[in-house]
Amino acid sequence: MIFRKRFVLIPLIAIAAALVWSAVALIHKDWRAGYSTRDVYISAVNWPMYYAELAVRKFWRDLTDKGEVGLPQVRLYLPARSTAALMADIPDSTKVYQRAYMLQPDGSLERVQVRYRGDNPINWLFEKKSLRVKLRKSRMRDGVRVFNYGAVQSPELLGEHIAFEVARRIDVTAPKSRPVELFINDRSRGVMAEIERYDETFLRNRNIMPVNLYKGEQYNADLVPGTSRMLFENGRFWIKISAFNRRLESDRSDLDRLLSLLGSSETNLEEFDRFLEAAPLHDWAKFAAYQVLSQSTHNDNAHNMRLLSDVWRGQVLPLPY
Hints:
Layout: H1 2-35, H2 47-64, E1 73-77, H3 80-86, E2 98-103, E3 109-116, E4 131-134, E5 146-150, H4 159-169, E6 177-184, E7 187-196, H5 200-205, E8 212-216, E9 238-242, H6 253-264, H7 269-278, H8 281-294, E10 305-310, E11 315-319
Parallel strand pairs: 1-6
Antiparallel strand pairs: 1-2, 2-3, 3-4, 4-5, 5-7, 6-7, 8-9, 8-10, 10-11
Helix pairs in contact: 4-8, 6-7
């Protein structure tokens, strides 16, 4: 009788311990989602249902997958150590490159570097994560070294690629992009947009150097505490991605001039004319047309702004992001 009780009790204790451990793990995951990054809000997630649906989807894919290739495939292989390091101290660890390998067309593995993207936990907390992949300088692809792979945050899987395609077709300077199917350790992570990163290589490939390339983010963890979210009120809010090499890295006189003209032109016609010289109406109107055509509200006065500043011409132009 005692043996029978133990036979029943031990499995029950094991199941209860497993449930408690799973519950604690989910609570910890939920805490990381909402409190690991400053100034970030993420909606409540039903984690048990999320993992249950994920398991069903994986099972169904394995059952129905015929091995047919549709979109171009990108295959990455991340060692367990790299995967653990990326999530070891979020959000800071997500920004540190880790070793990985990419499958080449000839079947060989090329060493690359991989990190996660974005301050918002949506980009790296779930099964499908946004990645940044850096190739070796000697092994760039079509003149591009760094690619972003975005985990789409809306049902429109191709929206990001289509938006850039629209920009390119109306002659708005935009990065290369294409839809791909991403595999990590031979497990499909679904459809993603592969997008060239804005950096010095991007500028060189288009023969638009030397210029300043600015990143504007007053949002999430990039928000400067105690300041306004309005990017176009202060040049100190902007970060240089690529710098005009004949001026100091800290020099933002070109951007300060534009923002000063923006303010003074509201009440002074002469200043308004100078502002139109610094921010050519044709180029900014074309950018606005691109936003209308692509139905994009991704760029705004607090978030996701990229500016191209031609110091010699004294002109500042917007870039889609």
